[in-house]
Design goal:
- With 293 residues, the chain is mainly beta.
- The protein folds into 2 domains: 207 residues, Sandwich (Jelly Rolls); 72 residues, Endonuclease I-creI (Roll).
- The strands form 4 sheets. A 9-stranded mixed β-sheet has the order 1-5-19-7-16-20-21-23-22.
- Bound molecules: calcium ion (2 copies).
Length: 293
């Protein structure tokens, strides 16, 4: 199995980045990833003012997937994730919805246990997820701190082990990269960071021709999930709902009004993150809803 070193990182998803590895469709590959601070935060004394912002949000890659050409879809199955046993969380003035009110910069180290996170003496749910994952946009590059139609910094807790993520292919080889894993994060990521961890991600990539999913799109055992990123949460909600209605209309014979009412009754519109340059919302629809008796 190919392994992509955490030494090969990019800070912009860009069609001109030279690929660091090449695989065939349906091949499995491991991405080693740094945490979002390039593993530079070593203690709780390292607050945001010590951060080298040129090293924030490294994404390992890009990976060239043979046979992928513009217009295809890249199916990324997240087979397995392992993470380090400590993680870093921080906030500071200007970060997140409460940023204007926060005056004290603070960094907290959390411990990662088998099934939980230990944080300030409390036990938190462990939610291991990938914050940054995407392909290279066809036009201008996008920095790895920003989510958009190519994926990127979507900070969506459902991008986790066992899930399948569908991304657009806009350049030859797709140029997939990923990083910014979290050991825990709540919807919204309101303080501006998750429990930032390094680790390894094993994925299987497959090139799909003629896939009509609205992208980016997630599938879990129970859910279909449409994702929208835009400058405001309101705009991101519009994108996510629009994407999911398109999906429902293609899978059923519903018109737009019917599909919208269906989502109104059975879809959950949720905030993925409210802190990045583009905000991200998602619509979750239980798969069981579209099954006819
Ligand atoms: Ca992130
Ligand atoms: Ca992060």
């Amino acid at each position: 199995m190919k392994r992509i070193s955490k030494e090969t990182v990019i800070f912009e998803m860009n069609r001109n980045q030279p690929p660091v590895a090449k695989v065939a469709s349906k091949e499995t590959v491991i991405f080693e990833t740094l945490d979002c601070f390039s593993n530079t935060v070593k203690s709780e004394a390292d607050t945001i003012k010590t951060i080298d912002f040129s090293k924030v949000n490294p994404a390992t890659g890009p990976l060239f997937v043979e046979g992928a050409v513009s217009g295809d879809t890249l199916k990324v199955t997240i087979d397995k994730i392992t993470i380090t046993n400590t993680g870093v969380a921080m906030t500071a003035h200007g970060m997140g919805p409460l940023g204007e009110k926060i005056t004290k910069e603070q960094t907290i180290i959390g411990q990662v246990h088998e099934d939980s996170i230990e944080f300030l003496g409390l036990t938190l749910p462990k939610r291991v997820m990938i914050g940054v994952i995407g392909t290279a946009p066809g036009k201008e590059g996008v920095n790895t701190g920003t989510p958009d139609t190519h994926g990127g910094n979507m900070d969506t807790i459902l991008v986790r082990e066992g899930a399948t993520l569908y991304l657009p292919v806009e350049v030859d080889g797709a140029l997939l990269s990923m990083g910014d894993m979290h050991g825990a994060m709540g919807d919204g990521e309101v303080g501006g960071s998750g429990l930032e961890v390094a680790g390894e991600i094993q994925v299987t990539v497959e090139v799909l021709k003629q896939c009509d999913l609205p992208l980016p799109f997630i599938e879990t055992d129970e859910l279909y999930v449409a994702i929208g990123s835009a400058p405001t949460l309101d705009e991101a909600a519009t994108v996510a709902v629009d994407q999911m209605t398109q999906f429902v209309m293609k899978r059923t014979h519903m018109n737009l009004s019917e599909a919208t009412i269906l989502l109104s009754l059975a879809g959950d519109l949720k905030v993925s993150q409210a802190v990045n340059p583009n905000k991200t919302m998602r619509v979750e629809l239980p798969k069981s809803v579209l099954k006819r008796p």
